[in-house]
Design brief:
With 340 residues, the protein is α/β, with parallel strands linked by helices. It is 39% helix and 16% strand. It contains ten helices and 14 strands. An eight-stranded parallel β-sheet has the order 2-1-12-11-8-5-4-3, sandwiched between helices. A two-stranded antiparallel sheet has the order 6-7.
């Protein structure tokens, strides 16, 4: 039984209330090209998608991305920094905090209409305060249209990577879409999803039959795997990455690219291990030109304060998965830039 609660506004309504100003459209276009050039190999810079596990409150997120914008000025010759502004949060058991899009005020009940407006307003402010455009997870494909004109990167999560609608919507986007390996770790399933996203599709979306022409910027994200007993297995190592490179070649995929997710099952959610993982990947990039060519960058979970908390008490501390603090993050990004 479904109980109707609140009418969801159409994307056009939300966009008209908070349009992208002309002054920011140039920034968006420039950022889209910077990031796309990394994926296609036109640029040898590294892409780093970095930020909190979930953007649960606007103020600390904006403080964080403002710092990131200043750091970007120091590393922009080597890195393309993309703030991780995740406004939806997948839940392993399907319950708990679902993200800003669902609950824009943690002290109140879920209100998706307000949440859709809040996540759009937040992403506009992100560009204003940092000069950077953000990344978000495509948790619900129908939400993409509320913010796709503001974002320069989308990720498809491990629980969604084999879903037909996620893959089809990814095929219609004009910006890079990273598709994670499923939680079980199948590289074949991940590459099949990249193939689907790079291919043209005809499908049903928001009351329409729509046609896409494929997204050549769709690519892989290695996030580690978890077996049926909950044991984590990393997949950022040299051997696994080169298997993915072989898979790209066999499938005839465009723009072979791998992003290493330094947290989740790669780190066993031991957030400090992200530093070690990035270090090992950078060593392998220095060791093998083919590894360097396909590994385009990292996903890193980071916030103002390290760790996590169950309730929003400490300003700038994650209420979901644990994150690196700002000091460690700054050192890590400077180190990656030096070795890139």
């Amino acid at each position: 039984m479904f109980e109707k609660q609140l009418k969801i506004p159409e994307p056009e309504e939300v966009i008209n209330e908070a349009p992208l100003p002309e002054s920011l459209k140039k920034i968006k276009a420039e950022r889209d090209k910077l990031i796309a050039d990394v994926i296609t190999g036109k640029s040898d810079k590294m892409l780093v998608i970095v930020g909190p596990c979930s953007a649960h409150e606007a103020a600390p997120v904006l403080d964080y991305v403002e710092r990131l914008g200043k750091l970007n000025l120091k590393v922009k010759d080597k890195l393309v920094l993309v703030p991780r502004v995740y406004t939806g949060k997948p839940r392993t058991r399907g319950v708990g905090y679902m993200g800003m899009f669902s609950q824009p005020d943690l002290t109140k009940s879920q209100d998706i209409p307000k949440g859709l407006k809040a996540m759009r307003e937040l992403n506009l402010k992100v560009i204003e305060v940092s000069g950077l455009t953000a990344a978000d997870e495509m948790l619900y494909p129908s939400d993409v249209h509320y913010i796709e004109d503001l974002l320069s990167y989308f990720a498809v999560g491990a629980r969604s990577s084999e879903d037909q609608l996620h893959r089809s919507v990814a095929s219609g986007l004009d910006v890079p879409v990273g598709i994670k390996n499923p939680t079980g770790g199948s590289l074949e399933a991940m590459l099949n999803s990249v193939f689907a996203a790079q291919s043209g599709q005809i499908f049903k979306l928001n009351g329409w039959q729509v046609k896409t022409h494929g997204n050549p910027l769709a690519h892989s994200i290695l996030r580690g795997a978890s077996d049926g007993c909950g044991n984590d297995t990393p997949n950022f190592h040299y051997e696994t990455v080169m298997k993915v490179a072989e898979g790209y070649k066999k499938a005839g995929l465009k723009n072979p690219a791998v992003i290493i997710d330094a947290n989740h099952s790669n780190s066993g959610k031991k957030f400090k291990s992200q530093i070690r993982i990035c270090g090992e990947v950078m060593l392998n990039r220095g060791y093998d030109a083919d590894f360097k060519k396909i590994v385009k960058g990292f996903m890193i979970e980071s916030f103002l304060e390290e760790g996590c908390q169950t309730e929003d008490v400490v300003y700038g501390k994650s209420i979901t998965d644990p994150c690196l603090g700002w000091e460690d993050t700054e050192r890590l990004l400077l180190d990656i830039a030096e070795k890139a």
